[in-house]
Amino acid sequence: MWENIVLEKEGNIAVLSINRPRALNALNTKTLLELDEALESVSKDGEVRALVVTGSGDRAFVAGADINEMKDKNAMEGREFALLGQRVFAKLQDMPIPTIAAINGYALGGGCELALACDMRIASSKAKIGQPEVTLGITPGFAGTQRLARTVGPAIAKELIFTGAQISADEAYRIGLVNRVVEPEKLMEEAKNLALKIASNAPIAVSLAKQAINKGIDVDLSTGMAYEAEVFGLCFSTRDQKEGMAAFVEKRKAEFKNE
Ligand code: CAA
Prior knowledge:
The chain is α/β, with parallel strands linked by helices.
């Protein structure tokens, strides 16, 4: 269906791969537009409860936005390209289901930004992560200046962005950029197991918890807490809340139906 995106469903989880391995999965306009469509189709699929995002091949997650496509752009075209990437990554961030980046190799520039738009990040021990844009004469453009600073704090984000340095997976773990580091051959198993564990919980509650956390990052504490009270209340109008609590009282495993 798409040339540069592979989307596979495995039960109630899905794996989306950026698939341009010969260009180390660099993001050109076509790939961003296909990613947009693929995310839309996952969002609309009522069965998928968690999404793993990764890169095809064994070298790269995504080695950035496509430099060949960008090299002759003027200021207006550069801005348009940033807005496209930002819009698609915002869609990824706002997915109703949890998303996990399985960082299987280089995650540079737009690749680091893609991982940052996911809810969680697991890195292979051979991953290399960074924002090398200033080495090319540009700033990050797919929200790296914003999400990296929110994820690791402004001082560490500034060091990474100002130096353009590539850091190891262990260093990324140390600064809180990735949730955990695993051996390369265990990466997909680990990411899928995390997705499956999440998928076994009450989907509406998981989705509302995601929304509350995401909203809370952008607003003051009292606004965030007010939103939390709203979604907490909303949970009590779901069948899954009745099922989850009944199962606890009856000492059995809950069977959630996403309703
Ligand atoms: N865009 C386009 N093509 C890319 C690419 C990119 N970002 N990264 C790698 N490729 C291509 C290479 O041009 C090469 O293609 P050819 O075989 O046709 O020459 C192929 O992928 C393999 O790459 P290398 O030969 O360079 O592989 P290597 O092992 O020597 O180096 C690397 C690997 C260190 C990742 C190196 O490819 C590299 O530095 N890539 C660019 C990384 C980068 O600067 N990313 C940021 C881009 S800017 C950005 O992302 C802006 C934004 O925020 C939106």
